[in-house]
Amino acid sequence: MSGKHFDRAAAGWDQQQSRVELAARIADGISSTLPLHKNMTALEYGCGTGLVGLTLAPKLAQLTAVDTSSGMLEVLARKIKEEKIANVTPLRLDLLQESLTERFDLIFCAMTLHHIKEAVQLLARFCDLLKGGGYLAVADLQAEDGSFHDAGADGIMHHGFHSEDLVKTVKGLGLHEVSAKEVHAIIKTSDTGVERPYPVFLLTGRK
Ligand SMILES: C[S@@+](CC[C@H](N)C(=O)[O-])C[C@H]1O[C@@H](n2cnc3c(N)ncnc32)[C@H](O)[C@@H]1O
To answer: Atom 11 of ligand 1 has which residue's CA nearest to it?
Structure first.
């Protein structure tokens, strides 16, 4: 899906209950796996409308919420204003093109990695941006056969990932305490009425 697709989808993004539920499961998975605390500075990459980030922000000192879609960031900015949230800063940035000077105690990325062709390069960038002892959390689709997204959807760079391969990749990038577990399964119904689960993993590690 192109950036324009996400711009167009932004206004109705939170209306789809399955997305809200998935984000809640991912946020729960991060909270129950990592020792979040109120002194932590965090970066969320591919924050969308903030479904995951705004759930975790009350447990953190500061969250920089990054996305490349201005439409998504506008929805997030509206929520921040309406809900008077003081510790979340939306930022339009492509980390593969530009970097940040700040380093973070936590970086998380939910359902975004499969949109990034240079996924390993992005994971390496996350590792660079972590402080020593900082935590990484990446949630995405377990490898699937390409049936998850609608036919013709653009911007789908990976049909999910084998989480055990990503664990090896992230260990190779120098993180330790790396593991992955299933946090949710998205249920989709085929044209013939057959229900099928698409598991979502949460990978975590520490610099
Ligand atoms: C499937 S949505 C997930 C949004 C949010 N994390 C959630 O769970 O609701 C993917 C998000 O990644 C963003 N995105 C796509 N390509 C990106 C890139 N190269 N850099 C940063 N964000 C990107 C999209 O704009 C979109 O907001």
So the answer is: 46
